[in-house]
Amino acid sequence: MKLSGWGRYPCVEVVPEQPRTDTEICAHLACATSLIARGNGRSYGDAALNETCVLDMRRMSRLVAFDEGSGFMVCEAGVLLSDLVALFVPRGWFVPVTPGTRFVTIGGMVAADVHGKNHHVAGSFGDHVYWLDLMLADGGVMRCSSEENVGLFNATLGGMGLTGVILRVAFAMQRIETDLMAQRLLKAATLDEAMDLFESNDASTYSVAWIDCLASGGRLGRSLVTLGEHLPRSALPPTREGRPFADVPRQRLALPVSSPAWVMNQRSVAAFNALYYARGRPGERIVSLVSYFYPLDAIGGWNRLYGRNGFVQYQFVLPKSASREGLRAILDRVAAAGAGSFLAVLKLFGTVRSRAGSLSFPREGYTLALDFPVSAGTFKLLEQLDAIVAAFGGRLYLAKDARSGAAMLAGYDQLDAFRALRERLDPVRHLSSLLSRRLGL
Amino acid sequence: MLVVGGTSDMGRAIAHRHAAAGGALILTARDTARMEPDAQDIRLRYRTEVTVVGFDLLALETHAGLLDGLPALPDIVVCVAGLLGDHTVSRGDPIAAKLVMETNYVAPALLLGLVANRFEARGRGVIVGISSVAGERGRASNYVYGSAKAGFTAFLSGLRARLSRTSVRVVTIKPGFVATRMTAGLKLPPVLTAQPEEVGAAVAAAIRRHKDVVYVRSIWQPIMTIIRHMPETMFKRIKY
Fold first, then answer.
1. Is the Cβ pair A62, B41 closer than 8 Å?
2. DSSP state of A80
3. CA distance to partner chain B, nearest, from residue A87 (Å)
4. Which CATH architecture has domain A180-408?
5. What residue of B is the nearest CA neighbor of A83?
6. Chain A interface, Cβ < 8 Å to B
7. B44–A15: do the CB atoms touch at under 8 Å?
8. In contact, A80 and A99? CB cutoff 8 Å
9. Could you confirm whether the keyword Transcription appears in this record (chain B) (predicted)?
10. Extents of the domains making up chain B
């Protein structure tokens, strides 16, 4: 069968294995010459692809332990975040860090060391992991934490599954008082305004901006900045009096077939962006947790919007000091190319904690995520963007990447340590993906 | 609900569905240590009571003991046990074929027969047997398995008829193709292939709606109607 990441580019022909137990994973490691573990296939590019053997971890989906008092959770790597949201939000528990979709596995969240809209206060998911069990290339299982096998632990957070197969993860859930969010929308007419809003609102728990990347000139970088807080029980609206957990997530709509590639063109995206920006009304409102964190999950298969050829997502982070100049250069380039990105998301990361993984993406500074349909023009544009990102000392998010070259890894300052660990533990690169081969990891 | 064969993907899905609705579970397994992580998963997810009981379905002499040893006779008993086997082996090796026949027919039927008697004495209960579309007609490529499922389907049908005037109900589930460990590696057409979770939902719906015989994906209904009505002279020539 054809297998790809969420961007539907690239594809490989492989039938994934579905292990149920550690023993079965060990057997696959023993007989496949090369393999990579895969979660729910939400990384965009080639991180979870290997034409020899792919371990679909979604049957490794058992909860192992949960402490109702402290929120201490242990679960297998294939547990879906959507399951945890459905089961634990009504009990007053939420994950400490969530990506923009709940259809990811916990193992995938560790492997990509995902971040959320609260990075500036909570760090990335890895910052909340107590320990993890990892099966190395030789089949041995290692418990890794910030106290034991520390090097391996750090390399595994954000290590894209290349240090071993993540079996189980222990992490901290956070208490919530309701399943609602207090959301505040702010409008920024320019990039500078948007960045000022991030910096003056750094006390907000959640913050993110949607940016109109087709606006140019005086409107370059115009954005809608969204701030959010978990709604305290004392602030429940009258309609929800006494029912802090009553949200029933809506039925998902699914996009059954690929829309023709021409649907997403410069004009349609520009029109959408102008309308979206104009309709954004500054102010506060109360929204459900699910619709706040996972707006796109409401449309199943939205990755088909970009047509059959698929799309690539481009997410980079620039050091904070270089962000204003660098973002302007990149947005200028994108607007000049007239390449419409439907989703363009800006976020200010906070200072990286000591625990950050060797290949973890987040670092202090601004991150921007853009997506483009796969085409020759897109790849040319992205090479130009690569040059700008590299010149400003930035780095690309490997979980989104499908096409960059090894030179772009220069933005990762612990790259050598990661490669040395790989060389020591897995010299034949038993664990490998299209991504690891493309980037020489 | 008592689930026999709870370690299978379908058994797990049926158990999850029942537990999600708040029901308590008894899961049997030959190897209770292997079952325990699944049981713990269900307890943590749904905060319901899950008991694991060691049981070998093929040990017929232990069937009555299993039922009498439970703290109470369950409201629902589901038998998910099954073994596809390798047909090329089953064809030539009577011991292998016997194992397929016993696992799919002899043992499940005899156990559910005992359950039926106890339900009848109590006056109520639901029996769910996971049979197969393979039991509707013997195919060249898997008639050992198919004939065993045919026997099981007929047994369930007879039980249902016998108990039709009581409050005991008998449900036959025919899943069609299901993406499970049993079918891993087989090339299955996606439209005809259900996920284990669909079987879980189908079992729950069949119990709720008082169904007798259920195809998990409704597309199997017309397909099997055609296959059942095909003249033998034609059927024996087609390859499927």
1. yes
2. B
3. 7
4. 2-Layer Sandwich (3.30)
5. B45
6. 15, 17-18, 20-21, 59, 61-66, 83, 87
7. no
8. no
9. no
10. 2-235
DSSP string for B111-161: HHHHHHHHHHHHT-EEEEEE--GGGSS--TTTHHHHHHHHHHHHHHHHHHH
Check A66 against B9: CB less than 8 A apart: no
Using a CB-CB cut-off of 8 Å, the residues of chain A touching B185 are 15
Residue A35 CA to residue A38 CA, distance in Å, equals 10
CB-CB: which of A17, A18, A63 is closest to B41?
Answer: A63
CA angle A88, B199, B76 (to 5 degrees): 85
Chain B nearest-CA distance from A2, in A, is: 13
Are A62 and B40 an interchain contact pair (Cβ–Cβ within 8 Å)? yes
- Domain boundaries in chain A? 56-176+412-439, 180-408
Would you give per-residue pLDDT tens digits along chain A (441 residues)? Answer: 899 999 999 999 999 999 999 999 999 999 999 999 999 999 999 999 999 999 999 999 999 999 999 999 999 999 999 999 999 999 999 999 999 999 999 999 999 999 999 999 999 999 999 999 999 999 999 999 999 999 999 999 999 999 999 999 999 999 999 999 999 999 999 999 999 999 999 999 999 999 988 888 888 889 999 999 999 999 999 999 999 998 776 555 566 566 666 666 777 777 777 877 887 888 899 999 999 999 888 777 788 877 788 899 999 999 999 999 999 999 999 888 877 677 789 999 998 666 679 999 999 999 999 989 899 999 999 999 999 999 999 999 999 999 999 999 999 999 999 999 999 999 999 999 999 999 999
Nearest to A62 among B9, B38, B181 (CB): B38
- Residues B74 and B122: their CA atoms lie apart, in Å, by 11
What single letter denotes the amino acid at residue A386?
D
Contact A18 B37 (CB under 8 A): no
Which residues in chain A touch residue B35, judged by CB atoms under 8 angstroms apart? none
Which residue in chain B has the smallest CA separation from A88? B45
Shortest Cα distance, chain A CAs vs residue B228, angstroms: 31
Q: In what order do the strands lie in the sheet with B125-130?
A: B50-54, B25-29, B2-4, B76-79, B125-130, B168-174, B213-215
ipTM: 0.91
C-alpha to C-alpha distance for A412 and A268, rounded to whole angstroms? 36
For residue A345, what are the β-bridge partners?
A210, A369
ω before A10 within 30° of 0 (cis)? yes
Minimal C-alpha gap between B190 and chain A (Å)? 11
For the stretch B158-204, pLDDT in tens is 999 999 999 999 999 999 999 988 888 788 898 999 999 999 999 99
Catalytic site residue B145?
A: yes
Q: Which CATH code for domain A56-176+412-439?
A: 3.30.465.10
3 state DSSP class of B168:
strand
- Reduced to 3 states (helix: H, G, I; strand: E, B; else coil), residue A364 is coil
Report the CATH superfamily, name and number, of domain B2-235.
NAD(P)-binding Rossmann-like Domain (3.40.50.720)
Beta-carbon separation of A65 and B185 below 8 A? no
User: What pLDDT shows up at residue A220?
Assistant: 86
Minimum CA–CA partner of B183 in chain A: A18
Is A18 close to B45, i.e. CB distance below 8 A?
A: no
